[in-house]
UniProtKB/TrEMBL annotation:
<dbReference type="InterPro" id="IPR021091">
    <property type="entry name" value="Mercury_ion_transport_MerF"/>
</dbReference>
<feature type="transmembrane region" description="Helical">
    <location>
        <begin position="45"/>
        <end position="63"/>
    </location>
</feature>
<keyword id="KW-1133">Transmembrane helix</keyword>
<protein>
    <submittedName>
        <fullName>Mercury resistance system transport protein MerF</fullName>
    </submittedName>
</protein>
<keyword id="KW-0472">Membrane</keyword>
<feature type="transmembrane region" description="Helical">
    <location>
        <begin position="12"/>
        <end position="39"/>
    </location>
</feature>
<keyword id="KW-0812">Transmembrane</keyword>
<dbReference type="Pfam" id="PF11431">
    <property type="entry name" value="Transport_MerF"/>
</dbReference>
Length: 79
């Protein structure tokens, strides 16, 4: 992904979705209705690393965006 805006968008959406699944019982209810309630014990092994990865991705995207904005403002106008 070359565009920092796209990277930032993916990071923020992923962070929100994983945080929503971590802090609310959405996945527990969903897995219970589908018949996969036995998997709820393993959600922590997947959701917390995914949350950390998406937060890291968001931080990296913000870093790249800031670096790109700084480099574009430091360029001298061409005559």
């Amino acid at each position: 992904m070359k565009n920092p805006k796209t990277l930032l968008r993916v990071g923020v959406i992923g962070t929100v979705l994983v945080a929503l699944c971590c802090f609310t019982p959405i996945l527990v209810i969903l897995l219970g209705t589908v018949g996969l309630a036995a998997l709820t014990g393993y959600l922590d092994y997947v959701l917390f690393p995914a949350l950390a990865a998406f937060i890291g991705l968001t931080g990296y995207a913000l870093y790249r965006k800031r670096k790109l904005d700084a480099s574009s403002t430091n360029e001298s106008p061409k005559e």
